[in-house]
Amino acid sequence: MTKDDTPESHGFSIALGGRRHGRPSPSLDNPVFQIADLDVWYGDHQAVRDVTLTVGSRQITSMIGPSGCGKSTVIRCLNRMNDLIPGARVTGKVAYYGESLYDAEVDPIEVRRRIGMVFQKPNPFPKSVYDNVAYGPRVNGVKGNLDDLVEEALTGAALWDEVKDKLKASALALSGGQQQRLCIARAIAVKPEVILMDEPCSALDPIATAKIEDLMAELASQFTIVIVTHNMQQAARISDYTAFFTADVDEEGVRHGRLAEYDTTVTIFENPADQRTEDYITGRFG
Ligand SMILES: Nc1ncnc2c1ncn2[C@@H]1O[C@H](COP(=O)(O)OP(=O)(O)OP(=O)(O)O)[C@@H](O)[C@H]1O
Ligand SMILES: [Mg+2]
After folding, report:
1. Which residue has a Cα nearest atom 31 of ligand 1?
2. Which among 76, 165, 200, 247 has most CB atoms closer than 10 A?
3. What residue spans carry the region label Disordered (predicted)?
4. CA dist., res. 157 & res. 257, Å (int)
């Protein structure tokens, strides 16, 4: 048994790296995002303080931690989704392949094409299955055979077999798990470089969750994935690196999200450096 297969961690069973699908060892040698001294404010409330971390290419990076500690806030910084929230302000550095995402000349629409996002609640457009997937390529003026592209994206999202006979049916008639995979197909149809996922499985049953986890492992051979999850086993199973966030309370009693520890998933789950990480992953806190 290799270390990756070790079933026991902190007294409860986690298949560490159980869905790695033979991918290479975790590495930050090719950074995609370099985040440094990141602060995020909503109005005059500082939601996130002083986050520094690097996301590696073709890695699955998970963000875990208790509710309200700023995971969604941080992941939204990676494709400038916070721009769309009135009063949100981001300071510090978020570099994407070495270039600041927040420079004035950077086009946020182009950023969101290259860095796609899948949300907690599946949000298909009230259109057909086909039109959901074709939407992005059409908007981007993609030339070539749209039918092939739609099939490729649906196959990539492990949904093709289930929907190939109902491409013209409304996406809203699909089950929740199918809708979530449709949203993943829609995200990959524009051929992004990165996919951000904020709790993509929280509303899904274990079968749909397993499908999406398998899918992520597959996609990681082509894409860089960052996922927020409350499911410890999921983080342990699928991710290469894990960022554990927590919230500090300052002198005035205000909570600020912070990155407590960031390391390989194996280290975070087997040998964390910070007591708060250990308490959280063993269920003593949060
Ligand atoms: N749109 C917003 N406007 C104002 N404050 C916000 C907004 N979104 C988040 N916040 C605040 O920022 C802090 C961090 O919230 P965030 O949603 O990032 O936490 P989270 O770690 O994703 O939590 P959860 O696990 O519950 O999803 C919280 O105090 C929250 O109230
Ligand atoms: Mg959240």
Report:
1. 68
2. 200
3. 1-28
4. 33
Q: What is the pLDDT of residues 31-61, one digit of tens each?
A: 999 999 999 999 999 999 999 999 999 999 9
Kindly state the average pLDDT of the residues 59-78: 96
Whole-number Å distance, alpha carbon 115 to ligand 1 midpoint, is 21
Beta strands 88-96 and 99-100: pairing type?
Answer: antiparallel
Atom 17, ligand 1: which residue's CA is nearest? 72
For residues 216 and 207, what is the distance between their CA atoms, to the nearest angstrom?
A: 14
Whether 225 and 60 have beta carbons less than 8 Å apart is answered as yes
Given the CA of residue 69, which atom of ligand 1 is nearest to it? 21
Which ligand 1 atom minimizes the distance to the CA of 120? 27
Q: Is the CB of 71 under 6 A from ligand 1?
A: yes
C-beta separation of 236 from 16 below 8 A: yes
The interaxial angle of helices 206-219 and 146-156, nearest 10 deg, is: 120
Name the CATH superfamily, with its identifier, for domain 3-281: P-loop containing nucleotide triphosphate hydrolases (3.40.50.300)
Question: How far apart are the C-alpha atoms of 273 and 278, rounded to whole Å?
Answer: 8
Structure tokens at 27: 């590495």
The residue extents of the domains of the chain are 3-281
The lowest-confidence range among 1-15, 150-164, 231-245 is 1-15
d(CA 115, CA 96): 10
Residue whose Cα lies nearest atom 12 of ligand 1: it is 47
Q: Which ligand is nearest to the CA of 68?
A: 1
Nearest CA to ligand 1 atom 11: 47
pTM: 0.90
